[in-house]
C-alpha cells in the first residue's frame, strides 16, 4: 500500500516543517501547515490571529483553562469549534489529494485511513534552541524557555483532543531525531518508507 | 560519526529481536540479548532463572514491589545488584566491540557515548499477538494479555532504573512501527542511519 498522505508532528525547532516541505516538493504533494489557517479563516470567518492562537495551541498549560476561553453562540468553546472545523477540513483534504500535513493532530484525525504515514520529528534542546535563534532571531525570552513553552502547549492540545500522550512512539509509524540524523537523512528515510 | 553500537528497545512480540539479529549479521557485529544473561550468570554466580526473572523485568507492575524482593548481603535488592553488574558489563562491552544490544536499558546506560544509535521497535497489539502465538505457541493466557503483561513489566523496569518513560520518542534516535513498515524495511532504515 502506498502512503499518499504524510502527517508530521514535531517538537518546536526540530525542523519538522522543513522536512515536511522537502517531502512535499520531492513528491509533488500538496503541503499544509499555515495553509490550513488561511483555509480556516475563509471557512469560519474568524480572525487569523484568533485561529493562530487557538488553532493548534491550547490557551495555557493547564488543561482546565480550555473551559474558560470564550464560547461560540452554540455554546462550544472557540478552541473546540475551530478543532471541529479543522478536523472536517483535514478529512476532506485527505480524501481528495496527496499531501503532507504538519501538526494539527492530523495523525489522530486520519487514524482510520490506511494510506497515511505518521511521522514524529524531535531533537535535543540544545540543537533546537540554536536553530530557533537562527530562524526566528533573539527574543526577550531565552530560546530554551521558548521551546519548552511551545512544546508544552502542543502536548496539552494533543492530549486534550486525542486523549493520547504527545511524542509516544506508538502514535507514529516513524519517529526520528533530526538533530542526530540530520534533516536530509530524515527526508530520505521517510521517502523510503512510503511504499509500506 | 559512525555508530558502531546499536541498542534496540522493543515491545514484546514486535520483532525487535529479529531485527537486531539481522542487523548484527549484516554488519558482522556481536549480538547481545540472552547472551548477556549467560555472562551475568558467570559473573555473579546467580542462578540463570533468577537472572532471567530479575534481570530485565520488574517483579511486578507496582514500582514499590521492588523494595521487597529479597536482598543481597550488602543490603542491595537482588534486582538492584543485578542491574549494577549488568550495567558495568554493558559499559565494558560497548568499550571493546561493535555490537547490537537488545533490551536491558542499554540506551540509557550508554547515553553519554556518541557512537551509539538507539532504536525502538513497536507494533500494534493485533500484529504482535499473532506473532507471539506463531513464535511461542498458545498458552493458557490470552496472547494480548501476555504482551500487555510483558510490556508493563518492561516499562516499570525502565522507569525505575532510568527515570524515563519507556517508549517516548525522545529516548531514541529512531522509533519504528514494524507491523506497518515490515521487518526488512526496519533493518534497511536502521542501516541507512548508521553513518549519522
If you had to describe this structure to a student in words, what would you say it looks like?
2 copies of one chain form a homodimer. Chain A is an alpha/beta fold and 196 residues long. Chain A contains 9 helices and 5 strands. The first copy, chain A, has helices at residues 16-27, 34-44, 48-55, 78-96, 106-109, 125-136, 143-162, 178-181, 183-193; strands at residues 5-10, 30-32, 99-102, 116-122, 174-177. In chain A, strands 2-3-1-4-5 form a 5-stranded parallel sheet, with helices on both faces. The longest helix of chain A is centred in the C-terminal third of the chain and has 20 residues, at 143-162. The interface between A and B is medium-sized, with 21 and 21 residues.
Amino acid at each position: 500500500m502506498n502512503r499518499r498522505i504524510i502527517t508530521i508532528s514535531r517538537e518546536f525547532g526540530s525542523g519538522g516543517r522543513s522536512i515536511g516541505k522537502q517531502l512535499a516538493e520531492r513528491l509533488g504533494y500538496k503541503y499544509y501547515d499555515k495553509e490550513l489557517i488561511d483555509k480556516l479563516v475563509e471557512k469560519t470567518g474568524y480572525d487569523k490571529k484568533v485561529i493562530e492562537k487557538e488553532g493548534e495551541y491550547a490557551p495555557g498549560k493547564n488543561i482546565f483553562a480550555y473551559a474558560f476561553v470564550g464560547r461560540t453562540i452554540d455554546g462550544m468553546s472557540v478552541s473546540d469549534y475551530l478543532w471541529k472545523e479543522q478536523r472536517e477540513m483535514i478529512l476532506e483534504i485527505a480524501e481528495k489529494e496527496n499531501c503532507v500535513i504538519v501538526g494539527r493532530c492530523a495523525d489522530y484525525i486520519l487514524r482510520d485511513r490506511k494510506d497515511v504515514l505518521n511521522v514524529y520529528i524531535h531533537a535535543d534542546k540544545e540543537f533546537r534552541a540554536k536553530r530557533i535563534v537562527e530562524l526566528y532571531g533573539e527574543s526577550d525570552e531565552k530560546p530554551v524557555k521558548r521551546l519548552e513553552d511551545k512544546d508544552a502547549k502542543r502536548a496539552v492540545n494533543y492530549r486534550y483532543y486525542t486523549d493520547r500522550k504527545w511524542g509516544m512512539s506508538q502514535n507514529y509509524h516513524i519517529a526520528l531525531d533530526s538533530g542526530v540524523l540530520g534533516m536530509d537523512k530524515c527526508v530520505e528515510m521517510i521517502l523510503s518508507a512510503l511504499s509500506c
